[in-house]
């Protein structure tokens, strides 16, 4: 759906998420039909039933977490959190601190994302929950997690949320709000479908170039560290640059290993530029693909599949010195190759 707001999305300054969440909150605050639509979505997906909810934006918590939209029930308790996402990564507070706010039975945290980001966000949430020691039951089909006290965490698309609200506004003959919602739908659809993200001045900073080069250097340095330890070799292997990034090939444990900087997978599958896989011959071996999946599952990771190969995201340490980042990644690769060569 085209809209005036969508046509000019690339000229709007500030946070696109804030515009979408403020717009959605505006509609929810003014329409009981819109609130009923959102309650029906939650009931269908999560089995939770809510009476009329009061929605507001940017309610800061004790640890300065600021959910985009908060839903407060008749008892003044926060039972619904809606977090708007387009292309930004999850923050350090998400989802753990947000779930901590939902200390009531029967509550829900919903991440609203573009269609292409459902899987990466769902996988990132799975890993963060596991790392935080939070017990949950994931539903890969519904992209949801059921936690204790009947708390639900779910990933939905903008289209899923907004189109159902639109249907209820049509049925309620709320023409003015319908026009407002159509502006938001057009805005979100344009962002969802448009692969070109408008440049910001800071995108051209030398800092960005230095960071991109450092990703390739990191792959080289990790393999150099493994070679220095006598665990890997690069004899007979070539490193290659490509449109998607950079691939570092090396041998380890009698296997052909690839440590790759891949911008395409970074965009489509997980919030990291570094990926781990094996050369093509290994994927022809019976049972190798399933073994790879099982090893990844130990860390709550779902590999990305492309042309018959599986690629595992490798997450560099954040806020650490270069040597610690390199050593941690080297140890990770040692562990993976040990498990896959058994």
Write a structural description.
The protein has 342 residues and is of the alpha+beta class. The protein has 2 domains: 4-193; 205-341, Alpha-Beta Complex (Aspartate Aminotransferase, domain 1), CATH 3.90.1150. Helix content is 43%, strand content 20%. It contains 11 helices and 14 strands. The strands form 2 sheets. The chain has a 7-stranded mixed sheet, sandwiched between helices. Strand 2 (69-72) and strand 3 (78-84) form a beta hairpin. Helix 3 packs across helix 6, helix 6 (158-171) packs antiparallel against helix 7 and helix 8 (206-228) crosses helix 11 (322-341).
Beta-strand percentage?
A: 15-25%
Q: How is the largest sheet built, in terms of strand order?
A: 1-2-3-4-7-6-5
Mean pLDDT: 89
Instruction: Kindly state the number of beta strands.
Output: 14
Query: How large, in whole angstroms, is the Cα Rg?
Result: 23 Å
Largest sheet: 7 strands, mixed
Give the domain tally: 2
Tell me the helix content. 40-55%
Give the helix/strand class.
alpha+beta
Specify the oligomeric state: single chain
Order of helices and strands: HHHEEEHEHEEEHHHEEEEHEHEEH
Number of helices: 11
What order do the helices and strands come in, and which of them pair?
Layout: H1 4-7, H2 16-30, H3 32-46, E1 54-57, E2 69-72, E3 78-84, H4 96-101, E4 107-113, H5 118-131, E5 137-139, E6 144-146, E7 151-157, H6 158-171, H7 175-193, H8 206-228, E8 232-233, E9 240-242, E10 245-252, E11 255-262, H9 263-268, E12 274-278, H10 288-297, E13 304-306, E14 309-314, H11 322-341
Parallel strand pairs: 3-4, 4-7
Antiparallel strand pairs: 1-2, 2-3, 5-6, 6-7, 8-10, 9-10, 10-11, 11-12, 12-14, 13-14
Helix pairs in contact: 2-3, 2-7, 3-6, 6-7, 8-11
């Amino acid at each position: 759906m085209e809209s005036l707001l969508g046509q000019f999305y690339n000229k709007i300054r500030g946070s696109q998420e804030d515009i979408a969440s403020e717009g959605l909150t505006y509609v929810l605050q003014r329409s009981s039909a819109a609130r009923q639509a959102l309650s029906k979505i939650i009931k269908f997906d999560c089995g939770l039933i809510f009476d009329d909810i009061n929605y507001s934006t940017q309610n800061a918590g004790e640890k300065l977490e600021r959910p985009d939209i908060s839903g407060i029930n008749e008892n003044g308790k926060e039972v619904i959190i809606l977090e708007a996402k387009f292309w930004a990564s999850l923050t350090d507070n998400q989802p753990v601190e947000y779930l901590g706010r939902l200390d009531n039975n029967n509550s829900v945290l919903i991440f609203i994302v573009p269609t292409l980001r459902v899987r990466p966000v769902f996988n990132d949430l799975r890993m963060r929950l596991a790392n935080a020691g939070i017990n949950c039951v994931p539903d890969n089909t519904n992209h949801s997690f059921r936690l204790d006290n009947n708390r639900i965490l779910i990933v939905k698309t903008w289209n899923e949320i907004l189109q159902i609200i639109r249907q209820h506004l049509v049925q309620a003959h709320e023409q003015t709000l319908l026009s407002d919602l159509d502006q938001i739908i057009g805005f979100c659809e344009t962002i969802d479908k448009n692969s070109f993200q408008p440049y910001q001045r800071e995108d051209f900073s030398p800092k960005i170039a230095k960071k991109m080069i450092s990703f390739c250097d990191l792959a080289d340095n990790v393999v150099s560290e493994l070679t220095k330890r006598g665990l890997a070799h690069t004899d007979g292997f070539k490193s290659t640059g490509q449109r998607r990034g950079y691939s570092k090939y090396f041998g380890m444990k009698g296997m052909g290993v690839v440590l790759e900087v891949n911008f395409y997978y970074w965009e489509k599958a997980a919030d990291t530029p570094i990926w781990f896989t094996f050369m093509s011959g290994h994927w022809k071996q019976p049972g190798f693909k399933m073994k790879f999946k099982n090893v990844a599952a130990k860390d709550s990771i779902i590999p990305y599949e492309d042309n018959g190969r599986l690629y595992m995201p490798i997450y560099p340490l954040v806020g650490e010195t270069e040597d610690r980042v390199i050593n941690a990644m080297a140890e990770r690769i040692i562990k993976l190759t040990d498990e896959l060569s058994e």
